[in-house]
Amino acid sequence: MPSLKKRVRGSKAALTLMVLVPLAIAAGTVSPTLTASAALTNTRLAIPECTPAQIDEWMAGPSGRYDASRNYSADVIYANLGKTCTLARTYAGVQAVSGKDHAPVGMGSTVPLAAFGGSFILRSQHTAAASVIIYSISSASIRETCAPKYADAIEVFGLYKGWPVKYFNLGIRLLVCTTSDDNVGAGPIALTKRIVVHV
Q1: For 88-179, where are the alpha helices, taking DSSP H only?
Q2: What is the predicted pLDDT for the residue at 192?
Q3: How far apart are CA 155 and CA 129, in angstroms?
Q4: How far apart are CA 132 and CA 112, in angstroms?
């Protein structure tokens, strides 16, 4: 999983905040689910964080016939249907699940922390996305070591405290490791080069 590079922009107050927030989290005085609007306080940006009501969150899966010998890849899309706002610059948190009760399968990726990489501006009618991948375990030797079970959907954790959890059907059943050799992961959330339309 690639590391995130932080860019320092704005006033000295913004730089001070970037230093103090990690220390406050370590001391237990600030919640790790720090909101994006708090991270922008006292800067010249002062743009509010996105709300669940204005973000159309959906998953764009692969097109065509799926080949079990290849990795399954998709994108979680965040479309801003409201006014310009800020979105967390962090990794999407995902978990493979199965059945009507969405029983967890495997370990999944980390729960997102809004303070991890700051925030970026998501303009009205623009989109951001994070990649989701389920690595193929078609090899018999791999299946013997990772105790796989079938999953039929992906759970995407809310970016901020109070944001709803979303579930997206995979359209097929995929084998997911249930040991520490987890084969489910997600990339960082970033602006898309073009606006993705929800069809």
Answers
A1: 140-146
A2: 92
A3: 15
A4: 14
pLDDT in tens, 43-82: 435 899 999 999 999 999 876 666 767 889 999 999 999 9
Cα–Cα distance between 71 and 183 in angstroms, integer? 10
Token readout for 146 is 């990772």
How many CB atoms within 10 Å of residue 174?
Answer: 25
Q: How far is CA 117 from the centre of its chain?
A: 12
Query: What does the pLDDT read at residue 64?
Result: 60
State the Cα–Cα distance between residues 16 and 38, nearest whole angstrom. 13
Between CA 90 and CA 86 the distance in angstroms is 12
Nearest to 192, CA basis, from 106, 78, 99, 100: 78
Q: Which residue type sits at 183? A: N
Residues 6+ apart with CB under 8 A from 15: 8
H or E segment to which residue 57 belongs: strand 55-60
Q: Check: CB of residue 146 under 8 Å from CB of residue 137.
A: yes
> What are the structural domain ranges in the chain?
50-191
DSSP conformation class of 50: P
- For residue 91, how far is the Cα from the chain centroid? 5
pTM of the model: 0.72
Selected from 2.60.40, 1.20.1260, 1.10.3470, 3.40.50, the CATH number assigned to the domain covering 50-191 reads 2.60.40
